[in-house]
Write a structure and sequence with these properties.
Radius of gyration: 16 Å
CATH superfamily: Gcn5-related N-acetyltransferase (GNAT)
Helix content: 25-40%
CATH class: Alpha Beta
Strand content: 25-35%
Number of strands: 9
Strand order of the largest sheet: 1-2-3-4-6
Number of helices: 5
Order of helices and strands: EEHHHEEEEHEHEE
Bound molecules: coenzyme A
Largest sheet: 5 strands, antiparallel
CATH architecture: 3-Layer(aba) Sandwich
Structural class: alpha+beta
Length: 171
Protein backbone atom coordinates (compact mmCIF):
# COMPACT_ATOMS: atom_id res chain seq x y z
CA UNK A 1 0.00 0.00 0.00
CA UNK A 2 1.34 3.42 -0.89
CA UNK A 3 -0.15 6.55 0.54
CA UNK A 4 0.55 10.23 0.12
CA UNK A 5 0.77 12.09 3.36
CA UNK A 6 -0.75 15.51 3.71
CA UNK A 7 1.22 18.22 1.98
CA UNK A 8 3.31 20.31 4.34
CA UNK A 9 4.32 23.87 3.52
CA UNK A 10 7.79 23.08 4.89
CA UNK A 11 8.60 19.75 3.39
CA UNK A 12 6.00 19.24 0.68
CA UNK A 13 4.17 15.99 0.15
CA UNK A 14 6.00 12.76 0.85
CA UNK A 15 5.09 9.24 -0.16
CA UNK A 16 5.56 6.18 1.99
CA UNK A 17 4.58 2.58 1.44
CA UNK A 18 3.63 0.03 4.05
CA UNK A 19 4.88 -3.53 3.84
CA UNK A 20 5.74 -6.48 6.04
CA UNK A 21 9.04 -6.59 7.92
CA UNK A 22 11.94 -8.26 6.13
CA UNK A 23 15.00 -9.68 7.89
CA UNK A 24 17.18 -7.10 6.15
CA UNK A 25 15.27 -4.29 7.87
CA UNK A 26 16.65 -5.06 11.34
CA UNK A 27 19.49 -2.54 11.43
CA UNK A 28 17.32 0.21 9.95
CA UNK A 29 14.53 -0.42 12.47
CA UNK A 30 16.98 -0.41 15.36
CA UNK A 31 18.08 3.03 14.16
CA UNK A 32 14.47 4.21 13.79
CA UNK A 33 13.92 3.10 17.40
CA UNK A 34 16.90 5.11 18.60
CA UNK A 35 16.00 8.18 16.50
CA UNK A 36 12.40 8.15 17.74
CA UNK A 37 13.39 7.88 21.39
CA UNK A 38 16.15 10.48 21.20
CA UNK A 39 14.42 12.80 18.73
CA UNK A 40 10.76 12.65 19.85
CA UNK A 41 10.36 10.98 23.23
CA UNK A 42 13.14 13.24 24.54
CA UNK A 43 10.54 16.03 24.57
CA UNK A 44 8.59 14.09 27.21
CA UNK A 45 11.28 12.44 29.36
CA UNK A 46 14.48 13.63 31.05
CA UNK A 47 17.91 12.98 29.50
CA UNK A 48 18.53 10.39 32.23
CA UNK A 49 15.31 8.57 31.35
CA UNK A 50 16.10 8.67 27.62
CA UNK A 51 19.59 7.29 28.23
CA UNK A 52 18.15 4.49 30.35
CA UNK A 53 15.49 3.66 27.74
CA UNK A 54 17.84 3.61 24.77
CA UNK A 55 21.54 4.10 25.50
CA UNK A 56 22.33 3.14 21.90
CA UNK A 57 20.67 1.48 18.91
CA UNK A 58 20.01 -2.18 19.79
CA UNK A 59 22.35 -4.71 18.16
CA UNK A 60 21.10 -5.71 14.70
CA UNK A 61 20.98 -9.45 15.39
CA UNK A 62 19.08 -9.08 18.66
CA UNK A 63 16.59 -6.79 16.95
CA UNK A 64 16.20 -9.21 14.02
CA UNK A 65 15.44 -12.06 16.41
CA UNK A 66 12.90 -9.98 18.32
CA UNK A 67 11.11 -8.92 15.14
CA UNK A 68 11.14 -12.52 13.85
CA UNK A 69 9.75 -14.25 16.96
CA UNK A 70 6.29 -14.78 15.44
CA UNK A 71 4.88 -11.30 15.92
CA UNK A 72 3.53 -9.37 12.93
CA UNK A 73 5.58 -6.31 12.00
CA UNK A 74 4.67 -3.62 9.49
CA UNK A 75 7.19 -1.13 8.17
CA UNK A 76 6.64 2.25 6.53
CA UNK A 77 9.36 2.84 3.96
CA UNK A 78 10.24 5.85 1.83
CA UNK A 79 10.53 5.92 -1.96
CA UNK A 80 14.00 4.32 -1.71
CA UNK A 81 12.52 1.58 0.52
CA UNK A 82 14.34 2.93 3.58
CA UNK A 83 12.26 2.22 6.72
CA UNK A 84 11.08 5.34 8.57
CA UNK A 85 8.61 3.79 11.04
CA UNK A 86 7.31 0.45 12.26
CA UNK A 87 4.66 -1.17 14.43
CA UNK A 88 4.22 -4.72 15.73
CA UNK A 89 1.38 -6.94 16.91
CA UNK A 90 1.72 -9.99 19.12
CA UNK A 91 -0.76 -12.85 18.93
CA UNK A 92 -2.59 -11.81 22.12
CA UNK A 93 -3.30 -8.28 20.88
CA UNK A 94 -0.26 -6.65 22.47
CA UNK A 95 1.38 -3.78 20.58
CA UNK A 96 4.95 -3.86 21.82
CA UNK A 97 6.60 -1.27 19.59
CA UNK A 98 5.59 1.79 17.55
CA UNK A 99 8.33 4.15 16.48
CA UNK A 100 8.59 6.83 13.82
CA UNK A 101 11.79 8.58 12.78
CA UNK A 102 11.55 12.34 13.39
CA UNK A 103 12.12 12.87 9.67
CA UNK A 104 8.71 11.31 8.93
CA UNK A 105 6.80 12.33 12.07
CA UNK A 106 3.62 14.32 12.02
CA UNK A 107 2.57 13.19 8.55
CA UNK A 108 0.17 10.39 9.37
CA UNK A 109 2.71 7.58 8.96
CA UNK A 110 2.06 5.98 12.36
CA UNK A 111 -1.69 6.30 11.84
CA UNK A 112 -1.39 4.46 8.52
CA UNK A 113 0.66 1.72 10.20
CA UNK A 114 -1.88 1.46 12.99
CA UNK A 115 -4.79 1.16 10.55
CA UNK A 116 -3.01 -1.74 8.86
CA UNK A 117 -2.46 -3.43 12.25
CA UNK A 118 -6.06 -2.96 13.36
CA UNK A 119 -7.41 -4.42 10.12
CA UNK A 120 -5.17 -7.47 10.55
CA UNK A 121 -6.22 -7.85 14.19
CA UNK A 122 -9.89 -7.75 13.14
CA UNK A 123 -9.26 -10.48 10.56
CA UNK A 124 -7.52 -12.62 13.21
CA UNK A 125 -10.46 -12.26 15.57
CA UNK A 126 -8.46 -10.38 18.20
CA UNK A 127 -11.00 -8.72 20.48
CA UNK A 128 -8.75 -6.40 22.45
CA UNK A 129 -5.61 -4.44 21.63
CA UNK A 130 -3.36 -3.22 24.43
CA UNK A 131 -0.16 -1.20 24.69
CA UNK A 132 2.16 0.30 27.27
CA UNK A 133 2.24 3.73 25.66
CA UNK A 134 5.02 6.16 26.42
CA UNK A 135 4.25 9.74 27.40
CA UNK A 136 5.19 10.55 23.79
CA UNK A 137 2.64 8.12 22.37
CA UNK A 138 -0.26 8.44 24.78
CA UNK A 139 -1.95 11.16 22.71
CA UNK A 140 -1.49 9.14 19.54
CA UNK A 141 -3.21 6.09 21.00
CA UNK A 142 -6.02 8.23 22.39
CA UNK A 143 -6.49 9.57 18.87
CA UNK A 144 -6.69 5.96 17.63
CA UNK A 145 -9.51 5.21 20.07
CA UNK A 146 -7.60 3.67 22.98
CA UNK A 147 -8.72 4.27 26.57
CA UNK A 148 -6.38 4.76 29.51
CA UNK A 149 -6.27 1.77 31.84
CA UNK A 150 -3.56 2.84 34.28
CA UNK A 151 -0.28 4.64 34.66
CA UNK A 152 2.71 2.34 35.17
CA UNK A 153 5.71 3.53 37.20
CA UNK A 154 8.79 1.33 37.02
CA UNK A 155 12.57 1.41 36.71
CA UNK A 156 14.63 0.94 33.61
CA UNK A 157 18.38 0.45 34.13
CA UNK A 158 17.90 1.85 37.62
CA UNK A 159 16.12 5.03 36.48
CA UNK A 160 12.49 5.77 37.37
CA UNK A 161 10.25 6.11 34.31
CA UNK A 162 6.57 5.71 33.48
CA UNK A 163 4.17 4.81 30.70
CA UNK A 164 0.46 4.10 30.34
CA UNK A 165 -1.39 0.86 29.81
CA UNK A 166 -4.04 1.60 27.20
CA UNK A 167 -6.65 -0.66 25.67
CA UNK A 168 -9.00 -0.70 22.72
CA UNK A 169 -11.85 -3.15 22.31
CA UNK A 170 -12.39 -4.12 18.68
CA UNK A 171 -15.94 -4.55 17.45
C1 LIG B 1 4.00 8.12 18.65
C2 LIG B 1 4.57 8.23 17.23
C3 LIG B 1 4.87 6.84 16.68
C4 LIG B 1 3.55 8.95 16.33
O1 LIG B 1 4.06 8.97 15.00
P1 LIG B 1 3.54 10.01 13.89
O2 LIG B 1 3.76 9.38 12.54
O3 LIG B 1 4.14 11.35 14.11
O4 LIG B 1 1.98 10.08 14.17
P2 LIG B 1 0.85 10.52 13.13
O5 LIG B 1 1.34 11.67 12.31
O6 LIG B 1 0.39 9.32 12.36
O7 LIG B 1 -0.31 11.00 14.10
C5 LIG B 1 -1.67 10.56 13.95
C6 LIG B 1 -2.54 11.41 14.85
O8 LIG B 1 -2.11 11.28 16.22
C7 LIG B 1 -1.81 12.57 16.73
N1 LIG B 1 -0.65 12.45 17.63
C8 LIG B 1 0.55 11.90 17.37
N2 LIG B 1 1.35 11.98 18.46
C9 LIG B 1 0.63 12.63 19.40
C10 LIG B 1 0.88 13.05 20.75
N3 LIG B 1 2.06 12.79 21.36
N4 LIG B 1 -0.08 13.69 21.43
C11 LIG B 1 -1.28 13.95 20.86
N5 LIG B 1 -1.60 13.57 19.59
C12 LIG B 1 -0.65 12.94 18.88
C13 LIG B 1 -1.48 13.43 15.53
O9 LIG B 1 -1.68 14.79 15.80
C14 LIG B 1 -2.46 12.89 14.51
O10 LIG B 1 -3.73 13.45 14.76
P3 LIG B 1 -4.72 13.87 13.55
O11 LIG B 1 -5.21 12.58 12.98
O12 LIG B 1 -5.78 14.65 14.22
O13 LIG B 1 -3.92 14.65 12.58
C15 LIG B 1 5.88 9.08 17.26
O14 LIG B 1 5.61 10.32 17.87
C16 LIG B 1 7.03 8.43 17.97
O15 LIG B 1 7.79 7.64 17.40
N6 LIG B 1 7.24 8.79 19.28
C17 LIG B 1 8.44 8.41 20.02
C18 LIG B 1 8.57 6.93 20.26
C19 LIG B 1 7.54 6.40 21.23
O16 LIG B 1 7.34 6.92 22.29
N7 LIG B 1 6.91 5.31 20.79
C20 LIG B 1 5.86 4.68 21.51
C21 LIG B 1 6.34 3.62 22.40
S1 LIG B 1 4.91 2.82 23.11
Amino acid sequence: MTFDTAASPDTGPASYSIRQFQAGDAAALANVFKSAVHGIASQFYSPEQIAAWCPEAPPEEAFRQKMSDGRAVWVAADAADIPVAFIDLEADGHIDMLFCDPIAAGQGVAAALYRRLEAAAQRQGIGLLYVEASEAARGFFERMGFALDKRRDFERRGVKIHNYRMVKILE
